[in-house]
Amino acid sequence: MKVIIDSAIPYIRGIVEPYADVAYMAGAEITNDAVRYADALIIRTRTKVDATLLENSNVKFVATATIGSDHIDLEYCKRHGIKVCSAPGCNARGVLQWVAATLRHLVIKDCCTPQDYTLGVVGVGNVGSLVAQYARHWGFRVMECDPPRQEREGGDFHTIEEIAKECDIITLHTPLDTTTHHLISSTLIEMMRPKATIINASRGGVVDNRAVLHSDHRYAFDVWEGEPDLDPNVLAGAEIATPHIAGYSVQGKANATAMCIHALAEFFNLPLMEWYPEGITRPTPRLISWQELCQTIPSHYDISSESNKLKTLASEFEALRNNYAYREEYF
Predict the structure, then answer these.
(1) Is 8 in contact with 27 (CB distance < 8 Å)?
(2) In terms of domains, do 74 and 192 share one?
(3) What is the pLDDT of residues 59-68, one digit of tens each?
(4) 67 within domain boundaries
(5) Per-residue pLDDT tens for 53-89?
(6) Among 26, 57, 86, where does a domain finish?
(7) Bond before 283 cis per omega within 30 degrees
(8) What is the rounded distance in angstroms from the CA atom of residue 194 to the CA atom of residue 122?
């Protein structure tokens, strides 16, 4: 069996080698020629998995060490009997930490308290539900928007238009698909409250970046349209700018890698179903107060310095992302 693995995936080297011929490659180097004789791929978002990549190959299994799968043509894989697995929820608390640091930055800059804001959480899945839970605990008034969940469950969800009209801050945690592409559009932006802030830690295409740039709304982006080639004006206008690393915690990365290994082991009947990276401590989740968050998070995650680094080194987006020093989750 041959397995090709994205070389930027951490903690994975040496784990599959006892059971397979393993090749490590940069995401952009994983091409049709490279995968022709591979049985399995373990990738990230930088590898687009579609007919161009997989045609005339032996690939039977694809795992992505990411929560989303919009870089994978799921219909093509289904038609050709290729098993696809992702890592939903793996980095939810890492993204929560990024959102928390962003909210702290905004509230302190405004000389306000959480009670002064209505926060709209758009996409209330693994990440969004955590953001909503903690934000309520911190004192924000929270409104939730999740049309698929509302259709399945009913409940107290709001439309995206209601979120736009009522919220001071909107934080996005949706997948990217035909229904969410440019969800934040020029039309929706016109409905938004004056000076409302948009936070995007989902996918770049969920927001029409140019429309936000040409509005008077503040924005904090971890994900960008066209990344890694950023629009310099969009980057310069951001209140917070980071290189697609919101979920880059030690535990989030360990979880993603373990979920991929477990899926591979189940599919190919390998004795790796209980594997987890050695030496990684799984944190005990806890609610912390707004006061404790404000006091402690700068020493765990200095988001302002990270933002300044990307603005200074915009052309190094991919290097900043690939060489990122993973953060420790502490709540």
Answers:
(1) yes
(2) no
(3) 999 999 998 8
(4) yes
(5) 999 999 999 999 998 898 999 999 999 999 999 999 9
(6) 86
(7) no
(8) 19
